[in-house]
Write a structure and sequence with these properties.
Elements (H helix, E strand, L loop, with lengths): L2 E9 L3 H8 L2 H7 L4 E4 L11 E8 L3 E2 L3 E9 L4 E8 L4 E11 L2 E11 L4 H18 L4 E8 L2
Antiparallel strand pairs: 1-8, 1-9, 2-3, 3-4, 3-5, 5-6, 6-7, 7-8
Length: 151
């Protein structure tokens, strides 16, 4: 059964600036530098319709099989980005990222739906760790998270 992971992070910056940052692949690589190295990230920003494969090496040792990322939607007015992702080990990793205005500046919301068969629970725990770590590295003021099973 799939599991949905939700991470909310508060930033003191303008929501449009936070969203523009979220679109950049180099920013992703920088936020993950202590955890993962990416081979195959394209230059620039996420573009709707873009599909590419990345190889992620965790902690400098654990090289994962290619992970396919398809940018399914990008709506700058709504500050929304959606991707459909998968690999040999993960059948479904759907990521919905949205940045909304918050009284403190911006609220960055990541919603990830994961289906990895018997690996789903571990993958959801790993996703929680990774996304929380990314937001800590980005100096979020506050980070909340939840996980739930979905049909």
């Amino acid at each position: 059964m799939p599991i949905a992971v939700r991470i909310e992070a508060i930033y003191p910056e303008d929501p449009d600036a936070v969203f523009r940052s979220a679109l950049r692949y180099d920013e992703l690589a920088e936020a993950m530098a202590d955890i993962a190295a990416y081979e195959g990230l394209p230059p620039g920003e996420a573009r709707e319709g873009q599909t590419f494969d990345v190889i992620v090496t965790m902690w400098g040792r654990m090289k994962n099989p290619p992970h396919t990322i398809h940018v399914a939607a990008r709506d700058d007015a709504a500050r929304l980005l959606e991707s459909r992702e998968h690999s040999d080990m993960i059948a479904r990793w759907d990521h919905r990222l949205q940045v909304v205005a918050d009284r403190q500046g911006a609220r960055w919301i990541d919603e990830i739906t994961i289906d990895a068969g018997w690996r789903t629970i571990g993958a959801a725990m790993f996703a929680t760790y990774v996304y929380k770590t990314r937001h800590k590295k980005r100096n979020a003021l506050k980070i909340d998270w939840s996980r739930r099973k979905v049909a």
